[in-house]
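Side project, low priority. Logging it here so it doesn't get lost.
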Amino acid sequence: MGALAILVLLASLAAVPASAEEVLATFKLPRKHPDLPGWTDVEELSVVKVPLLGVTVSALRLKFYGPLPRGVALSINVYIDKDRNPETGYRGSDTRLYIAGVTPALRASGYYWNSTRRLWSGMRGVQLITMMTGDDTIMTTLPPEVLGPEEELKSAFVRLDVTLMVSGSFSFKP
C-alpha cells in the first residue's frame, strides 16, 4: 500500500466523529498511580465500530488519563480471553494485541495462542492501522482475525499490560 493511501486511511480514521461510532465493549480502569502524570495510566479500553472510507471497521481505543507527550516509548499488550475459560490459552488469554513504538509513531501486531506449541503465533496477512486520535488516545484497527465474533468479544475478559519509557531515562510499568 502506498504512503499516500495510508495517509488517507489514517486521516479518515482520525476524523470520525464520536457520534458515528458504535461501542461494542468498554472496560474502565482505575487510576493506579495518581502521583505520576496522567499518561502513565490507561483510563479506558474500548472496542468500537467506526466508518473508514465508507466501510465500517472494528477498532481498539486506549484512552489515557492525560495527554501522551511526544517521544514516549510504549509497549502495550492487550490480552483477550474470548472463551472466558481461564484454563485455556496463555494465563487464560486466547488473543494478544501488541502495540509498540515511540509516540506518535506506533504499530500493532495480532497474535493467537498456539496451545500445541505453547507460544504466541503471529497472525499472518493481517494489516493493522495504528494511530493517535487525540493527545490522550490511541486507536488501532482490529480485523475479525484478531477479535473473532462480536458476541465473543462482548463477554470476553480483557487484561492490559502497559510498559512506558520516556527518552530512555525513565521506565515505568503500571
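Brief comment: The mean pLDDT is 76.
Revisit when time allows.
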